UniProtKB/TrEMBL annotation:
Residues 92-219 form the GST C-terminal domain. Residues 3-85 form the GST N-terminal domain. Pfam families: GST_C, GST_N_2. This is Glutathione S-transferase rho.
Length: 223
């Protein structure tokens, strides 16, 4: 089954990690995979462009279906393999509503995180405006305070006690921010959430290989 799937991915990329976690949760190990280097610009190679004309990772093929948007790939896999592995869409309308709300609300969290990272990395230091940097920091801080409030009220996962599709989609971004300096003291509920899922088999098995090395990064230290 999984032999009919191909995943081209990059280490430390939250969208790639989402698909990897999903494949583990649905017990779809043994798929064809290739780790590519962002530093060497391998995501712009012809091999990737043949699957994903945007030249972005992940590039994911399942049978004849190409799903390069990580959320789309995860939803597709859950619907195609409902009876396999862990069920990630709850039956309860309450839990389901909360799951969908958090899943799509996370688009804003990701957007604000990317705004901060992209500005810092794409704009040369001499051309950066302090006011823009400050605006991006304040926007992400306000967003994280919302999630801190949400996670204070939950039973370990985003939609209650059970691990759901919302966790598959949101966890990689939260782990990314902590890896790059987000303060556990400032966001204790978010940190507790992140730490509680680190040993989940699907997450442990797919932890970004480049993260095992100590990297002193402080992108999110002042958030």
């Amino acid at each position: 089954m999984a032999k009919d799937m191909t995943l081209l991915w990059g280490s430390g990329s939250p969208p790639c990690w989402r698909v990897q976690i999903m494949l583990e949760e649905k017990q779809l190990q043994g798929y064809n995979q290739k780790l590519l280097s962002f530093e060497k610009m391998e995501h712009k190679s012809q091999e990737v462009l043949d699957m994903n004309p945007r030249g972005q990772l992940p590039a994911f093929k399942c049978g004849n279906h190409i799903l390069n948007e990580s959320s789309a790939a995860c939803l597709f896999l859950e619907n195609q393999y409902k009876s396999q592995g862990n069920k990630l869409i709850p039956d309860s309308p309450d839990a389901q509503a909360l799951m969908y709300q958090r899943m799509f609300e996370a688009v804003t969290l990701v957007e604000k995180m990317v705004d901060l990272v992209a500005y810092n990395f794409r704009v040369p230091e001499g051309e950066r405006h302090d006011s823009a940097v400050q605006r991006n920091k304040e926007a992400l801080t306000a967003e994280l305070k919302l999630w801190e409030g949400y996670l204070k009220k939950t039973d370990c996962c985003l939609a209650g006690k059970e691990f759901t599709l919302a966790d598959v989609l949101v966890f990689p971004y939260i782990a990314y921010m902590f890896h790059y300096g987000l303060s556990s003291e400032r966001y204790p509920a978010v940190a507790k959430y992140c730490n509680s899922l680190k040993d989940r088999p699907s997450i442990k098995a797919t932890w970004p290989p480049t993260w095992h090395k100590l990297i002193d990064q402080d992108t999110f230290k002042t958030i």
